[in-house]
Predict the structure.
Amino acid sequence: MPKKAAKKTVKKAPKKAVKSVVKTIAKQEAKKQIGTITHFYNNINVGVIALSDTIKVGDTISIEGETTNFKQKVDSMQIDRDSVKAAKKGQEIGLKVKDRVREHDLVYKV
């Protein structure tokens, strides 16, 4: 007589836990890296960003690093001391930031 296979009981994750994981994944997908901080001018609170994607005035960005983590709206930006409305991949922009940033901090568009 063949042996019966043991029934496996699978515990389902609580619905609340599944929803929070889905929300976390959605938030991570919603932000896209657009650049990296290359320099910070402490006396005027301006960060220099090397862009890996486009950015324009009015976008909301998130700057994240080891000790940096804040969001802000892009009110104005400059390239070689000239104000611009938009910048594209490969350019470096100067951006007035509301808090201190550090070299190698990552910049995301939210």
Notes: The chain is about 15% helix and 40% strand.
